Amino acid sequence: MNAVVVHNLSKNYGKKNEIKAVKEISFEVSTGELFGVIGPDGAGKSTLFRMLTTLLLPDNGSASVDGSDIVKDFKAIRNKVGYMPGRFSLYQDLSVEENLNFFATIFNTTVKKNYDLIKDIYVQIEPFKKRKAGKLSGGMKQKLALSCALIHRPVVLFLDEPTTGVDAVSRKEFWEMLMKLKSQGITILVSTPYMDEAGLCDRIGLMQNGKLLSVGTPKEITASFSQTLLEVKSENMYALLQQLIAYDSIMEAYSFGEYHHAVMKENFSIEKLQQYLEEKGNKNVVIKNTVPTIEDCFMQLMKK
Amino acid sequence: MNQFFSFVKKEFFHIWRDKRTMFILLGMPVIQIIIFGFALTNEVKNAEIAVLDQSHDAASSLLVNEIKASRYFTIAALLHNPDEIKTTLQENKAKIILVIPSSYGNDLKHLNAAQVQLIADASDPNTATTLINYASAIIQDYQQRINTNIQIPFAIHTQVRMLYNPQQKGAYSFVPGVMAMVLMLVCSMMTAITIVREKETGTMEVMLVSPVRPMKIIIAKAVPYLLLSFINIASILLLSVYVLGVPINGSLVLLLAESILFTITCLSFGLLISSITDSQQTAMFISLTGMFLPTAMLSGFMFPIENMPLALRMLSNVVPSRWFYEIVRSVMIKGSGFEDVWMQTMILLGMTLLLIILAVKKFKIRLE
Q1: Domain check: are A30 and A41 in the same one?
Q2: CA nearest A158: which of B142, B307, B87, B206?
Q3: Which of B13, B21, B204, B206 should be substituted to probe chain A, the one whose Cβ sees the most A Cβ atoms within 10 Å?
């Protein structure tokens, strides 16, 4: 059974509905899956999540969460999902413990009852349980927010950009926690602007300008990358990029960490490229074949 | 129920932990009562009076003693020639001057009539009028007493009795006013702000995606402020009875019940504001202009409604505090019972119901 089914969902903002935040999105998430919505800021991820958590009404299309319609059965959905909004939304003047207890009672449960579910996360912040939530560090705030969103053992968990603004170590820990939750059978939908987190999801949807560009497992998505991808490096990286973009058999070139990535047209030769770059005065030119990442796929899909 | 208590507890934490706001909420009525009671008063006590007694005889000194004996005046200077009048006023040595002409004693004895002159510094017209009234009253009083032995035909003596507030204390009118203002501020503004704050910080978003019924959120928000208002009502009443000497002539139970009704009116107004605004600033602005100003200006507490132009008089009818002010004044000062204020109570009740219905209807169960 599918935990989340989205069909042609659209949402417009503005007085004349001129801002189209989400455009006819359709996808499905199976029960127990960790599904990532990947996209840059302003792609419409939060709008999508808010529609699925019944906070916004769609203008078109339909969706259901755990079998309940997001418009008709919104009360049922509010009983069984967990939602963690993009920005920290707990009571800053209440302590860690008070926040957790409060959220437990509003979901008609107790911390004790579902302690095993949040235990792994909560033990990390437990030493600070008397501290006011507003005084926690970014990573700890996220852990507390996750604990609060989990305290009622939700069927589906919606996490809107949980790792934005969190340091690298906390991000890694956060994803490890999500893996554990997944193993407990909770369906998780997570949105993130970080492409490197995509590989940690079971399946992902790439989102841009309100549209879902592609949906699939990270492997399926990278496998769909049809062209050859090269990584190129030399001493003058800036000039190199200009020269790569100008080169005939290159469809596209962009900087990618230490290297530039070049998407090649058919009938290219590495030797000719090497020769061309050296003629242009590049020293220590390195050209290698590389495996496309999600980010490469995203760049390609964006241009289409 | 557990859910509800947990909510109320949380609300109390918010109030308790924001010490500055709490201090303002609980201290404000005390400070307002003290300011209105002692500083902003139009009663005049111990005003400086100067006397130019040109008559210098037994009759004139009797009159001067009469003035001296009154607690409204202290004699600041005894003048000796008319030129001093101008300088005394200009140097602010006295606010009013009693001039007794040289013929005073003689005229009184032989003509049965004499004139005295009161010269007041009308650069402050309110004080001048008050002082003139006080001084005239003292002189009248004195005149009547010396008249008792002499028969004068066809004299009409007006006997004035200022009922309910014989000393015409200002406190009698501002205690009900301050009550209306404080309740308005605590209930309308604070509830509006705390709900809008949850919208601003995003906690409302989380709260909406939970099984809690919106009505529960709203009522839980209102309960702590209802309690706080009750403390404020009590402190205002205690201060006015024991410090300002304003009696509670009517039934205390009725007074408290009416106050609770008005508190609920204010709470529902606050809820309505919170439903239609998204930022704390807007909420504050609307509660100030929508509630606080009309309470101060149009409830009859500062300016008599009877003197207003028709448009403003009509407008004052929709200001809830106007009716509350009338109720408190009647019950507290005049000692009226429910039978005298039932109409105002019904109006207030109607307004409250309307506001509650609007607030609940406008409450957004989603983000838009």
Answers
A1: yes
A2: B206
A3: B206
φ and ψ of B187, to 5 deg: -80, -55
| Interior/surface letters A269-282, b for 16+ CB within 10 angstroms, e for the rest | eeeebeebbeebeb
Is B38 at the interface with chain A, CB within 8 A?
A: no
pLDDT value, residue B46: 80
Q: Which pLDDT does position B152 carry in this prediction?
A: 60
Contact status, residue A237 vs residue A283, Cβ threshold 8 Å = no
Closest CA relative to residue A260, chosen from A299, A278, A234, A282: A234
Min mean pLDDT across A145-154, A260-269, B289-298 is at B289-298
The distance of Cα A63 from the centroid of its chain, to the nearest Å, equals 20
Rounded CA separation B350/B328 (Å): 18
Q: Do the beta carbons of residue B322 and residue B300 sit within 8 Å? A: yes
Same structural domain for residues A189 and A107?
yes
- DSSP for B198-255 reads HHHHTHHHHHHSSS--HHHHHHHHHHHHHHHHHHHHHHHHHHHHHTS-----S-HHHH
Question: Which amino acid appears at position A165 of this protein?
Answer: G
Q: Does residue B368 lie within any of the structural domains? A: no
- A-chain CB neighbours of B365 within 8 Å are 74
Lookup: tokens for A145:
């927010």
Collapse the DSSP code of A252 into the 3-class scheme (helix H, G, I; strand E, B; otherwise coil) and give the result: strand
pLDDT per position as a tens digit, A173-223: 899 999 999 999 999 999 999 988 999 999 999 999 999 999 999 999 999
What's the token pair of residue B70?
A: 């009154």
Q: Which domain holds residue B120?
A: 47-147
Tell me the nearest-neighbour CA distance from B183 into chain A, angstroms: 26
Beta partners for residue A189, in sequence order: A35, A158
And the tokens for A149? 């969103």
First to last CA, chain A: 33
* CATH (domain of A288): 3.30.70.2070
Banded pLDDT at B155 (limits 50, 70, 90): low
Measure the CA–CA gap between A229 and A263, rounded to whole angstroms.
5
Burial class of residue A241 in the structure, from the number of CB atoms within 10 Å of its CB (0-12 exposed, 13-18 middle, 19+ buried): middle
For residue A71, what is the domain's CATH number? 3.40.50.300
ipTM, two decimals = 0.85
Both A254 and A148 in a single domain?
Answer: no
In this complex, do A108 and B211 lie within 8 Å of one another by their Cβ atoms?
yes
Closest Cβ–Cβ partner in B3, B201, B366 for A55: B366
Residues B256 and B280 reside in one and the same domain: yes
Higher pLDDT, B124 or B161: B124
Range name among B170-184, B219-233, B328-342 with the lowest pLDDT average: B170-184
Please give the C-alpha separations between residue B202 and each of A86, A92, B196, B209, B251, in angstroms, as whole numbers.
9, 11, 10, 12, 46
What value does the CA radius of gyration of chain A take, rounded to a whole number of Å?
23
CA distance A48 to A29: 14
> What domain count does chain B have?
2
